[in-house]
């Protein structure tokens, strides 16, 4: 392990272990956060490897285990992995599109000890839901919601918001209420990976966002204790850098399907950084001593304007992946910040969204798909 010369502060344990079990997925979402070149990353850890990762993570102090993908239900050993996570004392949650979530599978996962399910919808209408994922899943998702409720699991409904569905927010929340969700996560699109490819088409207008937030607040009052509503802020429009992943290497440890360990699920694209693999290193060594986890920990890595900013401890310079995608420098200030020298690039993207129409017509959406993935990887 390469430890940098001026070592950053030693962190506490990772609290969240996110196991991305596979990049395989039957959906083709235009905002998918899986890597653009996912089609070239076909290796997956074995069941034994995953069980060891879970054990090592728990020994280190992780308490929450998310099981995601791709579609995690495509792994036949999901129940085995859940059972071991539960035995080790994790709180487990499954992040699923619902495809493959049959009544039988639900029973087996319940018996294995799964605590919680997050079900994604793309929209409240069949037409838009099925269009955005390029798969007929709307009715299936409704059935899966019933299965989740029948097993007594708390349910989070997750909807990624953007220009195409944000005006349906009223019906989206009503759908969550009808299906009995305890939580709804209304997540404004974060522009990485496939969402970055489609950014021009997905960015909403300010007016759309203001209305969506107002509608969400009305529902918050109406639903009171019945459902909790989370509205994930749109940082492009707000001009407020977020403390991404709660601080690099402070809380989250993601393991990708091939075993690469990352501080956030898109960090692998960052240049000049080596991320270790759980096949070769222990989770403890990875967390405390790897270059990849140490590089952007704390504030010591910052340059101006972050280094002297009075907000640096609050936002930790924002998102490293966003800095790379927009400013071509992962150590730059997040360009959503008005103090960033690259902020005009964000303002221009937002202004283009305000101007509307043409961009959407001129640039068709790129759906997540193996052929597109290989094409984009070749062109990168
Ligand atoms: Fe990678 Fe923000 S998504 S640091």
UniProtKB/TrEMBL annotation:
SUPFAM superfamilies: Radical SAM enzymes (SSF102114)
Gene3D superfamilies found in the cross-reference section: Aldolase class I
Cofactor: binding details: Binds 1 [4Fe-4S] cluster. The cluster is coordinated with 3 cysteines and an exchangeable S-adenosyl-L-methionine.
Alphabetized UniProt keyword annotations: 4Fe-4S, Iron, Iron-sulfur, Metal-binding, Oxidoreductase, PQQ biosynthesis, S-adenosyl-L-methionine
Superkingdom in the source lineage: Bacteria
Record has 4Fe-4S as a keyword: yes
Pfam families found in the cross-reference section: Radical_SAM (PF04055), SPASM (PF13186)
Cofactor(s) recorded in Swiss-Prot or TrEMBL: [4Fe-4S] cluster
Alphabetized CDD domains for the sequence: Radical_SAM, SPASM_PqqE
The protein's annotated pathway: Cofactor biosynthesis; pyrroloquinoline quinone biosynthesis
Domain Radical SAM core positions: 11-226
Residues the entry annotates as binding [4Fe-4S] cluster: 25, 29, 32
Reaction(s) the record says it catalyses: [PQQ precursor protein] + S-adenosyl-L-methionine = E-Y cross-linked-[PQQ precursor protein] + 5'-deoxyadenosine + L-methionine + H(+)
InterPro entries the record matches: 4Fe4S-binding_SPASM_dom, Aldolase_TIM, Elp3/MiaA/NifB-like_rSAM, PQQ_synth_PqqE_bac, PqqE-like, Radical_SAM_PqqE_MftC-like, rSAM, rSAM_sf
EC annotation from Swiss-Prot or TrEMBL: 1.21.98.4
Family, as annotated: Belongs to the radical SAM superfamily. PqqE family.
Subunit architecture: Interacts with PqqD. The interaction is necessary for activity of PqqE.
Role played: Catalyzes the cross-linking of a glutamate residue and a tyrosine residue in the PqqA protein as part of the biosynthesis of pyrroloquinoline quinone (PQQ).
PANTHER family for the chain: PQQA PEPTIDE CYCLASE, RADICAL SAM DOMAIN PROTEIN
Protein name: PqqA peptide cyclase
